[in-house]
Each structure stands twice: as C-alpha cells, then as structure tokens.
Amino acid sequence: MESAIINEIIAALISAIAIYVGFINRMRTQISVLEEKVKRLEEKCDEVSKSMSAQEHSNTVLEEKVKRLESRQDSHAKKNDDVITLINEMKIEMVKKISDVSMKMGKISSDVENINATIAIFDSGIVSKKGKKKGVK
C-alpha cells in the first residue's frame, strides 16, 4: 500500500514536472515569437522614422519655398501699389497743368482781344463794324 502511494506520488511529481517543463517550453516559444515581433516592429519604426525625417525635410523645403513666394508676392504687390500711386499723382498733375494751360489760354485770348481792340483804335485803316454802326476809316 505504501508502495502504491509512493508510486502515485512519483507519478504525480513526474506529471507535474512534465507539465512544468511543457509550460516553460511553451513560454520560451512565445517569448521567441514575441521577440521576433518586437524586432519587426522596431524595424518598421525605424523605417517610419526615416520616412518621417525625409517628409520633415521636404516639408521644410516647401515651407521655405512658400515663404519666398509670399515675399515675392508682397514685393510685387508693393510695386503695383507704387505704380498705381504714381499714375494717380501723374493724373492729378496733368489735370493741374491742363487747368493752368486753359487759364493761360483764356488770358492769352483776352490779351489778343485787347491787342486787336488797341490796334483797331490806333489804325485808321481798320474798320470794325458793330451792329449797324460804321467804324472809323
């Protein structure tokens, strides 16, 4: 009877050891699979990091290009504003000159009429007719 109990205890211990060894073996397998997965994930992370680095570089280049374009656009807009301002100033100056010329033309016209009137008074050969009256000969 004691040998039967000892045989059962030995069988139970051998089974427990076998289960424990199987459990440990299964854990080793799982650990090696997980290590492979971690290794692949690290490689993917490295690839993504490299591509992100390249993307950041291209984004930086694009940002610089956009800044240069904005600066050129601002420069052109300022030049356009300057040209428009200059054209408006020229228009104002032209209007002033035209009004000055028309005033001078009016004065010249008036002066010419005065000269004609003066010549008509001193020149006896000129006859000016005003209405029904006859002028001096």
List the main descriptive attributes of the protein structure presented here.
single chain, 137 residues, mainly alpha, 88% helix
Description:
There is one protein chain. This protein has 137 residues and is mainly α. 88% of the residues lie in helices and 0% in strands. It has one helix and no strands. The protein has one helix spanning 2-122.
Task: Summarize, please.
The protein has one helix spanning 2-122. It has 137 residues and is mostly helical.
Strand % is: under 5%
Distance between the termini: 180 Å
Q: What does the main sheet amount to?
A: none
User: What sort of overall outline do the alpha carbons produce when their principal axes are compared?
Assistant: rod-shaped
**Structural class, please?**
mainly alpha
| Number of H/I helices | 1
**Helix coverage percent of residues?**
over 70%
Low-confidence runs of at least 5 consecutive residues = none
Order of helices and strands: H
Q: How many individual β-strands?
A: 0
Radius of gyration: 56 Å
Mean pLDDT: 84
List the helices and strands and how they pair.
Blueprint: H1 2-122
